[in-house]
Amino acid sequence: MGSALSRKYRSRALAATLLAVATGYYMKKGRWEIPWRKKKLGSGKDKTNRRKSKGPSPIKIIFQKLWPFGTPDRNEPASLHAIGATEILLIFAVSMMRTWHQNRMVYVKRDLMTVTYTRNMGAFRGLMFDAGWMSVLASVIFSTHRYLKERLAALWREKLTKQLHSRYFHAIGYYKLSH
Predict the structure, then answer these.
(1) What per-residue confidence (pLDDT) applies to 142?
(2) How far apart are CA 124 and CA 127, in angstroms?
(3) What whole-number distance in Å separates Cα of residue 65 and Cα of residue 5?
(4) Cα separation, 90 vs 75, whole angstroms
């Protein structure tokens, strides 16, 4: 029965994957017509057209300017390019610690319920100690995560400001502005 059950789920997973791939293909090619987005009669433009410019989107441009890994642009100094790399790696590490902590707290709470039900005082004291130090650890993890996010935001603001100033003051560009 186990192999038949897994075969059933495998076929469902394969069918769902094929459906997702086909849907993505038709959406990308523009062949998929969504009924509630049809062009209204009498309107001169089709509102379902995507952005027609060939350049990258503004979000991609900002992301490329802020992403600290990889090689810097030709006009960007390496020290300015690397701003925020440490913070991003630390945020990733703290997020991993948060995941571990939440997973561990589920087991501590489960064991606490079990020990309370069985009235085992020795195990209850040990679990209360575990719950106490896990609460202190949670406070440290969450405050560190918030600090790193705020620091990264400040660093990115500083980085964008420096990039803006370098472009503005390059070749005395402020004289070229019209009043």
Answers:
(1) 94
(2) 5
(3) 50
(4) 28
Backbone dihedral region for residue 146 (phi beyond 0: left; psi -120 to 50: alpha; all else: beta): alpha
CB atoms within 10 A of CB 92: 11
Supply the pTM of this predicted model: 0.57
| CA proximity to 108, closest of 137, 130, 135 | 130
Instruction: Write down the residue that tokens 């087991």 correspond to.
Output: 107
Structure tokens that stand for 23 in this block: 């849907």
Residue 172: left (phi > 0), alpha (psi -120 to 50), or beta?
left
Give the span between the Cα atoms of 80 and 59, in whole angstroms. 20
Is residue 155 within 8 Å of 84, Cβ to Cβ? yes
Residues of the chain with pLDDT under 70: 1-5, 7-8, 19, 22, 24-53, 171, 173-179
Kindly report the number of other CB atoms within 10 A of residue 117's CB atom: 8
In the block, which residue shows the tokens 């420096």? 162
Residue 48 token pair: 């379902």
Q: Residue with structure tokens 């620091």?
A: 151
**pLDDT tens digits, one per residue of 31-54:** 445 554 555 555 555 555 555 667
